[in-house]
Fold this protein.
Amino acid sequence: MKPISEHIVDSAWQEMAGLEIDEIRAMVDKMSEEQPYVLVYLMAAGEEGFSDEEREILLYIGMVVWRIMSQGNAPLPQVDEQMLDTAEAANFEMLEALDRESPGDFIAVAENMLNQYNQLEVLKYIVEAIMEEGDDEEAIDIEEDNKGWMLIVLKTIVDCFDAN
């Protein structure tokens, strides 16, 4: 799949942000039909250690990612459990490799990985959405440990959708 543009990322995010609650439910139903394993993965990933609000955020961002990737130049592959397990394992291996780097090399290696990532604009959206700090009283702050786990889960989904 060709890289998704910043324009597509922004327009898909705006589309999702403007949905009413019944439209969101319909979107969940559609995702359940088109990508059932991805939906189950999103829901299961937040089971342990996430607050109800954090689980909702993870599901919402995951749905936005699905909408973004659906607007790419190629149809999305039908993601299955094996694809998710393989992509998740690769992401954990990447983290372990980064952990072994010296502090000086860590930045260079991480930058190189990002520069080679095919869906950089989608990854940027994910990081911004997870790291966003709310200014109003209704804003939900995500626990620091959960931010990293959310990033792995969402990157795993992007990697599966981006698979050839």
Summary: The helical segments are 6-17, 21-34, 36-45, 52-70, 81-100, 103-116, 120-131, 144-162. The radius of gyration is 16 Å.
